[in-house]
Amino acid sequence: MSTKGSMGSQIVTDPPKGTRDFPPEDMRMRTWLFNNFREVSRLFSFEEVDFPMVESEELYTRKAGEEIVGQLYNFEDKGGRKVALRPELTPSLARLVLQKGKAQVFPLKWFAIGQCWRYENMTRGRRREHYQWNMDIIGVPGVEAEAELLAAIVMFFERLGITSKDVGIKVSNRKVLQAVLEKYEIQADNFAPVCVIVDKLDKLPRDVIESELAKINVPSEAIDGILKALTLQSFDDLEALIGAESGAVGELKQLFALAEGYGIQDWLQFDASVVRGLAYYTGTVFEGFDKDRKLRAICGGGRYDRLLSTYGGLDTPACGFGFGDAVIVELLKEKKLLPKFPHVVDDVVMALEDSLKIKAAGVAAQLRKSGRVVELVIEKGKKMRW
Ligand SMILES: Nc1ccc(Br)nc1
Q1: Sheet containing 268-270: which strands, arranged edge to edge?
Q2: CA 263, CA 158: separation in Å to the nearest integer?
Q3: Whose CA is nearest to atom 1 of ligand 1?
Q4: Is the distance from the beta carbon of residue 68 to the nearest atom of ligand 1 less than 6 Å?
Q5: Residue 315 assigned to a binding site
Q6: How far is ligand 1, taken at its centre, from the CA of residue 185, in Å?
Q7: Closest Cα partner for 272 from 305, 307, 248, 244?
Q8: What is this structure's pTM?
Q9: Confidence of residue 133 (pLDDT cuts 50, 70, 90)
């Protein structure tokens, strides 16, 4: 929105479409949320990292039809370089791991909180930016890594007063779908595109999914087999479909056993419909959801053992999650768990006469040196801030 200024010039008051300002109270809420992200990461012995907001576009030019790639906030810079506002943090993390190379002691346990962008036409009125908390473990091939990540997510929810009655985490493994595709002799390079398509099952009608799969030459009997497999929600049914000796069954059972150890089993449920929409997942995938089913996914992640090699490195086992700053706030509001964030001070110091202003400054300085938050009244407004 813009309004007329005193000299007739336009005053721009709104931020760009799809973006948010954070005025003081919103900023205090965001700081509280991020402090919880950081505290959980700290308790899990993760180290904070950060990356540029702008990355080379080629970091994201995957060809599996992902929405995240189709909505790149990309442009050409003044040097003619093709760049993009990052849509996610994982590729930057992979790039940094490769940059640091073997000089590091693995496993790496890194976390980041960063603003991520997408450019979609505003007809849907959706936001174009959000902040994501990511935790990633690099160098651990076993599901012990996923168990740590799931335990961190649960700790975060519990810190905010959210229980396993409010939120669940659906867990599956892309090796389920891989086994089904192998059964129908679907070529391996169709695996990622199939995952990206069937991830939309909860957003698009079944016939649209079927026609999208047919477009990439998945035969109709395979389509039926894939969609049936995605309805599985018990290990018995999974074993009946792909065999008890399959990798997916072993990994899932071990992950759920570890979850018992963490005491987070009540939060997890096997659900083969979880595929996630990123092409690079290769194993475990998971997604936090609200049990009232009013909101979009709260968080999500999985194992991506081959992402680093797509950037020229060696295959390196890796897994991680992304946790956005928007849906969680909607959930907290729904559950009446969002605290108030008033601006709090310990002391207000005010010179009742101009001759006392210097004295008042000294009093404020002493109180602040002792660690107290002091509002020194330097201008008597019509309405006192306090
Ligand atoms: N990847 C992504 C970026 C920005 C928003 Br809003 N949502 C998803």
Answers
A1: 47-48, 108-117, 129-138, 318-324, 299-303, 284-290, 167-173, 268-270
A2: 12
A3: 87
A4: yes
A5: no
A6: 35
A7: 248
A8: 0.95
A9: very high
